[in-house]
Request: fold
Amino acid sequence: MSRSSVLAAMASQGVTAAEFDYLDGVGSNVQTQLNAKLGSSNPTVTLGTNATFPAGHVVQVVNYQTGAMATGTTTMPHDNTIPQQSSPAEGTEFMTLAITPASATNKLLIQMIFSASHSVNDDFLAALFQDTTAGALSSTMVSRVSGAESTHGSFNHFMTAGTTSATTFKLRIGSPSAGTMTFNGVGGAARLGGSIASSITISEIQV
Reply:
């Protein structure tokens, strides 16, 4: 059968010559070849280094969650200065989480939630730090609680990634009053059998 006859027959079924020519060079069943490339279920597709996502797409999410109890006694001033992690350190570091951004221009949304108490009836503060930078990126104040009570706090920080190297974020908590800060517990003792869900979550967002 000639090519023109085949094309005429195909045209009667709505198949154009261009569509027919796509089959040129196919040596075996097309579906079988596709299955071999992708797998029959849960295929994994590897994107090229130049692949891009639409703005607002979540590129990756990393998370650290813990219910482990920990304590610290380093104070954190309740004044009009930026909390510090060095020279001298203020508060106690209770959680850390690292991320390696895919792009330096993407945004990072850092979300923190924590449960803590202090042995003295006073407010306490929490601050977010990055790598070895002395000053906090952001911070928050938590309402006054008595030594027999715990409370939870949460805050977010939104920033440009600024790097494609691994970078570590740290949460420090402290009170202006001398005493013992208990993370995920009260009075130096754990509560709820380690099920308290203090956490840091970092989402990288495409711009």
